[in-house]
Each structure stands twice: as C-alpha cells, then as structure tokens.
Model the fold of this input.
Amino acid sequence: MIELYHGGPTGHSASALIALAEKGLDFTSHPIDLAGGENHSEAFLELNPEGQVPVLLADGRTLTGTFHILLYLDEAFPEPSLGGEGTQARYAVHKWGKYVETHIAPNLAIARWAQLGGVADARPERLPPARAALWRQALAGFSQEQVAAARQALEKAAARVAQDAAATGWLAGAAYSMADIAAYPHLAQFHALGIALPAGAQDWLARVAERPAVREAAGDMPIVATMGPEPGRWG
Amino acid sequence: MLEVYTWEPNANSGKPLLCLCEKQVPFTHHYIDMGKLEQFSPAFLAINPDGTIPAVVHDGFVMTESTPAMEYIDDAFDGPALRPADPWWRWRMRQVMRYMDNVVAPSLAMLASNRLAAPRYADVDEAEKRRELEKIPLPERRAAWEKLMFGKTPQADLDESARRIAESFDLFEDLLSEAPYLAGEEFSLADINVMATFYHLPQSYPDDVNDARRPHMMAWLRRCHARPGLQRGFGTGRGFITQRAADVRRLLGVEDAA
Done:
C-alpha cells in the first residue's frame, strides 16, 4: 500500500510521480495545493514538519527527501532497474541526485520566486527555524545579487546536463535512470525563466519528455513557486 | 589502482579513508595539506578543477563527491557490507548522511575554521589574501573563505551554526535510542559519515555529550571507536587528528585494537 502526498506534476513532486509511473506502481494520490499554502497547514505539517512535498507512505513508514524516495522505490521495487547500470553509472546517479537537491532546486526556487512571485498563504512561523528563515527571506524578497548568482548557477547546471548527456544521451551511464528523473522536472522549467539550454541539454529534455511514464505523470507541468527543497549547503 | 587525494581523517576529507579501512581495501593516500591550501594548487586542480577534497580515483575514474564515493566504495569492492539490505533502513542511512553533509558538518566547519584558521590570517596582508582567494574555483567556497580570512563571518551565521549543532545532538540521541547504529542493527556508511565529523564530541562538547546527558550517543561513540577499521582509519593522519582520536579513545575508556 503506497500513498503519495505531492504538489502535482512539478519540481520534486514530478520526480516521485514519474518514478511511480516508471515502476508501474498503484498508489493513493493526495494532491497538496502549494499555491494555496496547504503545505504549511497544520494537518500537512504533522506529516512533514519541514512543510515540503513529496511525502511517500509505504510499508507503514513515512519517507521524505525526494532523491532518497526515488532510491527507495528503486530498491524496494527492483523492476525495471533505474539505479544505474554498473558501479560508475550508480556513482553518477548519486552525484546527480545530490546536485539536483543542493544546487539546482534551491537556485531554481530563488530564480522562479523572483520572476513569478509566491504564494499568498505562507506560514513560516509554523516551520522549523532554518526553513522559516528561508521563507522569511523569500517573503521579504531576494536581493539582486542572490537572484543573479542563482541564475548563474542554473546556467552552469544546464551546461553540465549537456556535458554529461553528450556520450550516451542520458545523465548517468548508458541507460535512463533516477538521475534523469531527478533532474528533468527542474530543467523543464528553465525555458519559462528565460534560462537558455545548450542544444545537448534541449535534446536530453526532449528525450526524457517522450517517455510514456513522463507523459503520464507530467501533464502540462505547471510552474508553482515553492521554496525548497533543502536549506542547501550552509556555510 | 585506488588513489585517495585528501587531507586528514576528518570530516569530508576523512570519509573515504575511514570507509576504505573499514572495507579493508588497499589504497594509496596522496596527502593534500589543507594548512598550506594545497587543494587549490595547480597539481590538485588538474585532478579536481573544483578544488575540493577528497578526490577518489579508481582505475582512472575520478570521484569528487565524498558521500556518493562512499556508496561507490561499498558497491565496487568486496569486503564487509556497509549498507543495510532493507530498503527503508537504506533510506534512513542516506537521510542521516544528507543531514550531516548539508546541515551539521558545515555548521561545525564554520565554527571550527573561525576559531582555528581565522587567527592565522589576522596578520597576513590584504594583497596576499586576495592572491590566495583568486586560486579558489567555486564561487560559494571563495565567498566563505573571504569571510574567514577577513574575519567577516556574521555573528548571526555563527549563532545559527551553534543552534544547528545543538539541535543535532537531540536528534542523534533520539535516533540512537531506536537502534545501536544510525541505520539499524549493523554499522553502516551513516556511522562512518557521522564519526568523521563527530568522533571528538566528548572532548570538544563535554557539557553536551557525556554519559549523563546523552547516554545513547556515548554508547555509540564507544562502539564505533572500538572498531579496528575506524582505528586504522584515524591512524592515517599526519597531523593532530590521529592523536586527537587516540586521546578521545582514552577519554572514553576504549582500548586500542591489537
């Protein structure tokens, strides 16, 4: 019995939805209205005090942390294998998972917030201190320097996608993997923010978008400004 | 051929050293002296252009992310398994490592570097410091070093780091009251990751981490420090870390393995 609390086919929630579709798993879907601030509702914060989606309920356990949810799904439900073929590809899957969560997603959140604005009903006072501080900063507005640095980091990420996908068409070794699933919903938003993708990254994006599971999960990939996922590297 | 380019058996730098010693895999340790900023030297930048340690090179395959490299080591080599078989405990192992990597270890590094490294730059002239800064490739690391060298780390950041560390002690005490190790009944990569940064707590935070206040953390520290693999790992240093680990073992009443 699997349940997923998610913000619809965007950002980290999209990665979890795609992974469930790739694995062909049935699950109970609990959509959370991020634009309406439902992720800060008392009911949701009981499930995840950090106020972040997605949250996976499986085998009587509650799992957070998107990339680690993806690895859990791959290890608990081995077919089809999406963890990387061979030790070097598996290292690359882990490297990309970490890069998406600590570099791409936090910088995308800042760039997207600056351009598209945020939610009406954020409740930082209900969050743990580090998350609350991030939200207060967002509500006060990020500085021009922060936004410029975030966009620069995203341009670097786009170049890195093109570079790593050059050899095989996928980010981690010879096969489509959780690295592609982790990165895709974030890279899919670059165009709307005016961040140019090199040809290699655009081709990769199109290749992932063609997968039936991605089409099934993604719908029209709406863009919602949500802060997250991790506080990012502190210090 | 397995080569590890790194400094002491401490924090990120120490993760592959401790991991390989636990796994009983032979390797060559190329010592990168952080005290001399050798991680920004042209020779090391040729291996890792980002200028971060460690770098682990296996038959020409270069790895520069320390936690993914630990997963690789367990994946690629024979020896005792360092990841639990159960998928949920593996999830727990990785969540603990991510929390350590993103939140706790950087907080401890910020406090320690401001206490230990910052004073060394007090009398260095500005042009010299600027020259050193220009060698640092990653903008976010350069910004952190600039604050450190010029004594400009905001007090609010130092306070927030102290808060994060204090909060982590409660969390680890809770986790270790559920199971003897951080990812269940067996020792795992999570224990190596956290030990690399926390091995000295009874000495460095004696008021917070002692038998009366944090009995489960203390029992875990004794279990880990007693391991021959970790003892060998902490023995790979050339500077004060190896001696400090030995001092902590004596403080904990843990015997040196034969």
About this structure: Chain B has twelve helices and four strands. Chain B touches chain A at residues 61, 63, 65, 67-69, 71-72, 75-76, 87-88, 90-91, 94-95, 98, 101-103, 106-107, 109-110, 139-140, 144, 157, 160-161, 163-164 (CB under 8 Å). Strands of chain B lie at 2-6, 28-31, 55-58, 61-63. The mean pLDDT of chain B is 96.
